[in-house]
Design a protein that fits this description.
With 329 residues, the protein is an alpha+beta fold. It has helices spanning 130-138, 143-151, 164-174, 177-192, 215-230, 238-244, 249-260, 264-282, 287-293, 299-310, 314-318, 321-326, and strands at residues 13-15, 51-58, 66-68, 71-76, 81-85, 88-92, 97-100, 106-110, 118-127, 156-158, 197-199. The longest helix has 19 residues, at 264-282.
Length: 329
């Protein structure tokens, strides 16, 4: 079996329009139900034990905003770039390892892909937690792995992992049946005790898109979403976005809601709050400066939307001791 067909997800994933443009692949949005698990994309033809594996290069048609119902353990083996995971944006390089929870939107964008592309950029393992929970009822020692999954509901990064982590991935790929499950449990137990881990995302910042969109419609909205994610700080209008997508304002509004599961205005607001969260956690800028930097025109409006979406004020979010301690700050 070639490495290109050795890894695959185990259940249907849903791919949303790309939230950040790929610098070398101006592809249209393709929803997973149209991909038919093509082995050419890296899908395994027969996932084993409810644990699926995937390998893909860069650029790839799989590089777009998407979510799925399984956990995903994602290892980057080549290229550098940015990982968009929930409401977090982090730099990645070879050796970057993240455990992403169910339904958390994510997207990996490589910035240094050579002209000929990269055959293997990422290795991923996708799995549900039902079997592990059932096994934990018989073997209490598995509780450590279950606690890791609870911590990973919104994403965890594991820093400082060496080459041995890649060997775990290759063994899981090679095994089948109970042996594959046992190797995954061993890997999760190992990660549960890894000292250099921290949460990536506070919540699921992006809404679930409709699964009933056509590829032609989604490609237009894809273009608009990419523009919003790059220019969220600008004055974005429904009319302007409609023109960008080649649609009238009202038609664009209806189509956007159908594809993204929320209104255009709500998506812009969520994108701005997501960026504000990143700045609050990773910079010392004043809250008022962050407010204007991410595109709000007054502090009261910023505070109101922040409280609505995060359940607390920006100041409380920045001083959240529970998060800061768990993040290793």
């Amino acid at each position: 079996m070639s490495i290109a067909t050795a890894f695959a997800p185990v259940a249907r994933a849903t791919y949303a329009p790309a939230g950040a443009p790929h610098p070398r692949e101006p592809h249209e949005a393709t929803f997973e139900h149209a991909l038919l698990r093509d082995p050419a994309l890296g899908f395994e033809t027969a996932p084993s034990s409810g644990i699926g594996c995937l390998v893909h290069g860069a650029p790839s048609r799989l590089d777009r905003w998407h979510y799925h119902d399984e956990y995903e353990l994602h290892l980057v083996v080549k290229t550098r770039g940015k990982a968009y995971i929930g409401d977090e944006i982090v730099d990645f390089a070879p050796g970057f390892l993240a455990l992403i929870g169910p339904s958390v939107p994510h997207h990996f964008v490589s910035h240094d892909v050579p002209a000929g592309g990269v055959a293997v950029r990422s290795l991923a393992i996708q799995f549900g937690d039902d079997a592990l929970r059932q096994a934990a009822g018989l073997f209490p020692d598995l509780g450590e792995a279950l606690r890791l999954l609870e911590r990973a509901r919104h994403g965890i990064e594991f820093a400082g992992m060496g080459e041995e982590i890649r060997e775990h991935f290759h063994r899981i790929r090679a095994y089948r049946g109970l042996a594959r499950f046992a190797e995954l449990v061993a890997l999760l137990s190992y990660l549960a005790t890894w000292p250099e881990s921290h949460p990536l995302s506070m919540d699921r910042a992006l809404p679930r898109p409709s699964q009933e969109v056509t590829e032609r419609l989604s490609s237009r909205i894809d273009k608009a979403v990419g523009h919003i994610c790059e220019h969220y700080m600008d004055d974005l209008s429904l009319t302007g976005m409609g023109e960008l997508a080649g649609m009238g304002a009202q038609s664009f509004s209806r189509s956007f809601h159908r594809v993204m599961g929320c209104t255009f205005v709500e998506f812009v607001t969520r994108t701005r709050i997501t960026k504000a969260c990143h700045l609050l956690r990773h910079t010392d800028q004043q809250i008022s400066a962050i407010c204007y930097q991410v595109g709000f025109n007054n502090i009261s409006n910023f505070n109101r939307h922040f409280r609505r979406l995060r359940g607390m004020t920006p100041a409380a979010y920045r001083s959240d001791k529970a998060f800061l301690q768990s993040a290793g700050a």
